[in-house]
Structure to design on (269 residues):
């Protein structure tokens, strides 16, 4: 499943030409960036860039006259099957490389507020945060560096039975992070209402909310598989939590062809 924008991107930059999975992921990132309503020539800061999926879409949209600084608190050896460093090196070798500066092992709160950006982007990174207070600190720091914050995350409101498995998997993995120390991508779950509240507290008072289809992505199936793989690690959880988990697993595994949750996008000013 590859749309015209992704096909043109792959042919232009010779990135992920033989990687069908990555091309599907890119399709969603382009949909998110379109919803962000960014313009050519913008100077963008991306928080929690990961392997650079959204970074590539951002760099494409801002064009030759634009710039994307992409930071992540993780180290270069994080990630599989490709590490962050390997993914970034691959992107930097492409014609997009001159528009992008990757910076790993970097806490956003350590950046000087004299660095100003046309927009700061948080794309599918908020569930790595451990609590609201930590995320609020990031939003407050962002407020001093930009007039526009663009935010995207999974929407926990599912619309079909097939999407429900992703929701149940997310719930299981959020519980897992409360009982077992891990570096997984779900440490806490924030809904769109949580995010809007935190943005308002950080003095982003004008928030526009939209929904972006993501049901075709593989993430729902991946999270279901991962949730099943760690079920035995809940052995020390209290009996009532075990009962809750049994219900979550039963509901999750009734879905034979899981779909991903959609994403919600907030543009905050």
């Amino acid at each position: 499943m590859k749309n015209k924008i992704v096909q043109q991107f792959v042919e232009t930059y010779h990135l992920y030409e033989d990687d069908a999975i990555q091309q599907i992921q890119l399709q969603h990132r382009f949909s998110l960036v379109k919803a962000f309503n960014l313009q050519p020539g913008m100077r963008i800061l991306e928080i929690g860039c990961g392997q650079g999926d959204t970074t590539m879409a951002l760099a494409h949209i801002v064009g030759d006259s634009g710039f994307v600084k992409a930071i992540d608190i993780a180290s270069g050896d994080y990630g599989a099957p490709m590490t962050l460093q390997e993914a970034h090196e691959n992107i930097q070798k492409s014609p997009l490389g001159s528009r992008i500066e990757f910076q790993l092992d970097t806490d956003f709160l350590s950046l000087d507020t004299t660095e100003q950006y046309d927009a700061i982007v948080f794309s599918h990174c908020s569930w790595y945060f451990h609590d609201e207070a930590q995320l609020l600190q990031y939003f407050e720091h962002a407020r001093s560096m930009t007039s526009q914050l663009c935010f995207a995350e999974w929407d926990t409101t599912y619309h079909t039975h097939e999407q429900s498995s992703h929701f149940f998997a997310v719930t299981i993995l959020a519980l897992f992070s409360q009982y077992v120390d891990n570096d997984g991508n779900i440490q806490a779950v924030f809904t769109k209402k949580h995010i809007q509240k935190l943005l308002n507290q950080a003095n982003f008072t004008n928030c526009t909310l939209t929904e972006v289809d993501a049901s075709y992505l593989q993430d729902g199936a991946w999270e279901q598989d991962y949730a099943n793989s760690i079920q035995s690690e809940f052995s020390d959880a209290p009996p009532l939590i075990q009962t809750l988990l049994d219900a979550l697993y039963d509901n999750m595994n009734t879905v034979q062809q899981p779909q991903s949750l959609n994403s919600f996008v907030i543009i905050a000013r």
Summary: The chain is about 40% helix and 15% strand.
